[in-house]
């Protein structure tokens, strides 16, 4: 009798588990997680827990080709050998090099890239490299974001700084401030087998030092950007034109960085001899780059403009693509993206691109400012 009663008790105690198992088979994972979140106590705590997401990924390969970047000085592409899955690295002046050794075809390289940075939609894939090591050999390398206990965000590596550790900035200057909250590039030889692994690194390079020194909030950036445009208009509104050897500066076509910047607000936007009514006003960056509205102009040229919110990427028909904040303009008929020196930007909910986009990416003959007009067309080339 006791045995039967005990079995019945166990049967009843297993019923909730059976119900949950049935739900696991019938419901999608998202629904099951939502259901678990509503349970009291630690019901589905394991399902709700998220693994730490690394900030940086790495790729190692053999250099097959090195190609200079035409649109950006001192920048180049590296193609890694892999017939089944080729990969491009983009190396710029902002890329930290672990050594002074320049990569050559046949070298082994390891590149670290920001997993949270916008990625252009292109094949073969292309990675903007944050840190590059050439022929690292037996040296272990790591790039990550480190907290107050000098453990990286993924709890993979813990740093034990000693008097023998070189702590410096990318240009080799000693760095004496706390390492908390910084992005660090680490060189080390051995580590423990614990979790996280502990190491006494030979060298720690603070990649985020310059960023933190110039830290401003997003709201401050937006306010400054708007103020710059207004101030620029006020500054030159009543200023007499500067004399030039060949006439007035305002009569010379400009496409990128003029010696002085005329007031762009109120200028007519003329595309293929047609003034575009109600076009958003052009503006200039702090570096005097003329920025023009992408969608208005592209549609006037016959392109279908599509916005992909998840990646903040814009495509023009099946011909071109670009991503907000990424200086990588993709001509889908080419293997490598085009750098203009200035990324596309959002302003009052609209995408703006450098005026040179309509000359160097979309190959229009003309894209210039001339006599209070912004002109884009395929007429005879203006010099």
Please characterize this protein's 3D structure.
It is a single chain. The protein is an alpha+beta fold and 383 residues long. It has four domains: 24-51, no CATH class; 56-134, Nucleic acid-binding proteins (OB fold (Dihydrolipoamide Acetyltransferase, E2P), Beta Barrel), CATH 2.40.50; 140-212, no CATH class; 251-377, Copper Amine Oxidase, Chain A, domain 1 (2-Layer Sandwich), CATH 3.30.457. It has seven helices and 26 strands. The protein has a five-stranded mixed β-barrel with strand order 1-2-3-6-5. A hairpin with a 6-residue loop joins strand 2 (76-80) and strand 3. The protein is elongated, with a radius of gyration of 28 Å. Mean pLDDT is 76; it is low at 1-14, 29-49 and 210-260. Residues 285-368 form the Copper amine oxidase-like N-terminal domain. Residues 211-261 are annotated as: Disordered. InterPro entries: Cu_amine_oxidase-like_N, Mao_N_sf. This is Copper amine oxidase N-terminal domain-containing protein. Pfam families: Cu_amine_oxidN1.
């Amino acid at each position: 009798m006791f045995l039967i009663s005990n079995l019945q008790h166990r049967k009843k105690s297993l019923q909730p588990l059976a119900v949950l198992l049935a739900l696991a088979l019938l419901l999608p994972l998202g629904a099951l997680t939502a259901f678990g979140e509503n349970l009291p106590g630690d019901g589905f705590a394991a399902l709700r827990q998220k693994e730490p997401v690394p900030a940086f990924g790495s790729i190692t390969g053999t250099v097959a080709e090195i190609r200079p970047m035409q649109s950006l000085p001192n920048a180049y592409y590296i193609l890694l050998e892999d017939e089944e899955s080729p990969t491009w690295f983009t190396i710029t002046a902002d890329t930290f090099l672990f050594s002074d050794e320049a990569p050559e075809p046949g070298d082994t390289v390891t590149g670290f890239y920001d997993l949270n940075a916008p990625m252009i939609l292109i094949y073969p894939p292309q990675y903007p490299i944050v840190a590059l090591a050439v022929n690292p050999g037996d040296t272990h390398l790591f790039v990550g974001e480190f907290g107050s206990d000098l453990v990286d965000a993924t709890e993979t590596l813990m740093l034990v700084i000693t008097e023998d550790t070189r702590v410096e900035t990318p240009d080799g200057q000693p760095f004496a401030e706390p390492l908390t909250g910084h992005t660090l590039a680490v060189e080390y030889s051995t580590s423990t087998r614990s979790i996280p692994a502990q190491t006494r690194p030979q060298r720690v390079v603070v990649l985020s030092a310059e960023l933190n020194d110039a830290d401003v909030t997003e709201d401050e950036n937006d306010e400054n950007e708007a103020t710059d445009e207004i101030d620029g208009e006020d500054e030159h509104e009543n200023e007499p034109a500067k004399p030039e050897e060949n006439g007035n500066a305002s009569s010379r076509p400009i496409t990128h960085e003029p010696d002085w910047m005329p007031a762009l607000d109120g200028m007519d936007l003329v595309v293929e001899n047609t003034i575009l009514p109600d076009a958003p006003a052009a503006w200039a960056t702090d570096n005097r780059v003329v920025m023009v509205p992408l969608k208005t102009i592209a549609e006037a040229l016959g392109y279908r403009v599509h916005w992909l919110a998840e990646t903040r990427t814009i495509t023009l028909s099946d011909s071109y693509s670009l991503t907000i904040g990424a200086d990588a303009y993709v001509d889908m008929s080419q293997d490598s993206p085009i750098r203009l020196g200035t990324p596309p930007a959002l302003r009052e909910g609209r995408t703006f691109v450098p005026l040179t986009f309509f000359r160097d990416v979309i190959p229009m003959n003309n894209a210039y400012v001339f006599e209070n007009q912004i002109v884009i067309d395929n007429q005879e080339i203006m010099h």
